[in-house]
Amino acid sequence: METTIEEKNRLKFFPVMMYAIVMGLSGLTITYQKAAIWLNFPYIIGEILMYVTTAVFIAISFIYLRKFFKYKIAVKNEFSHPVRINFFAAISISMLMLAIIYKESHPAISAVFWYPGTLLHFYLTMHTIAFWINENQQLDHSNPAWFIPIVGNVLVPVAGVGFVNLGLLMYFFSVGMFFWIILFAVILNRIIFHNQMAVKFVPTLFILIAPPAVGFIAYFKMFGVIDVFALMLFNMAVFFTLLVAFMYKNFIKLKFFISWWAFVFPLAAMAISSMLMYHEKECLPLLLLSYFMVGVVTIVILIVAYQTLLHMKKKEICIKE
């Protein structure tokens, strides 16, 4: 079989959404770091995952930079695409999550990721929302991936405590929480009253879990209390986790897309939230939920990672869609 132009130029079609892999691996890493502290898991698992995640981030960044310098038009087209523009925030989110990973053990390295990651995410948030306002958006283009530029704002305070004052962290938290509510209304309207999402975006339904789960963690990081608002965020995260579990038939027969990595990060956020809540409340149901969520995250990422490697071997990922 002759090699197609697309196969020869796989670099040209290397998607920015590959950074979702870093988000997923980062979520798994933080999950095992916290499991070592709160559930007595071996520390070595989180340590190994920390280096693996960093290596994957460097590798994907190197490849995407090569694409940027060789195929600037292709990158520009992605940056102006109504759906793919949201995945550029996965770059800054990956940096923020690496900052969280290194925060306890290597604060200097954490700062190296946090400061540029925060500045980049500030820019991407402004650019994305301005893009939504200036360009007429089709309702069919809306999907839970729109939360990606928003969730990143809520991640800023998680690693940012100690780097800057609380007022600045509250700015990012406030922006993230406000637009979570607004976008949720828009996306729920689209899902219920309009055309169903394209199959490759169905996994992004898991992203519904992330804003309240990450918001709960961020709120606790800033204020150190489990009050009514914190409980509301945690319970909303539990609700969306139960909802996607109830809809399991929507996911089990899906064809593989790189968007499968959207499964991992929200589940990891729920696992970390559960462990944090157990650490504070120390009740048996929360302990069981914590163990269950760690198990689910591990199984899901093994499946997604296997499918990713399999399709990369078949050269079915970096091709023109």
Major β-sheet annotation: none
**Uncertain regions spanning at least 5 consecutive residues:** 1-5
Distance between the termini: 20 Å
Estimate the strand proportion: under 5%
What is the H/E string? HHHHHHHHHHHH
Structural class: mainly alpha
Helix content: over 70%
Provide a count of the helices: 12
Mean pLDDT: 88
Cα shape: globular
Please, could you describe this protein's structure?
- The chain has helices at residues 5-8, 19-38, 43-70, 72-79, 89-103, 107-134, 148-160, 166-193, 210-223, 228-246, 264-281, 284-313.
- 70% of the residues lie in helices and 0% in strands.
- Helix 2 (19-38) packs parallel to helix 5 (89-103) and helix 7 runs parallel beside helix 9.
- It is mostly helical and 321 residues long.
- The chain is built from twelve helices and no strands.
Please describe the topology of this protein:
Elements: H1 5-8, H2 19-38, H3 43-70, H4 72-79, H5 89-103, H6 107-134, H7 148-160, H8 166-193, H9 210-223, H10 228-246, H11 264-281, H12 284-313
Helix pairs in contact: 2-3, 2-5, 2-11, 2-12, 3-4, 3-5, 5-6, 5-7, 6-7, 7-8, 7-9, 8-9, 9-10, 9-11, 10-11, 11-12
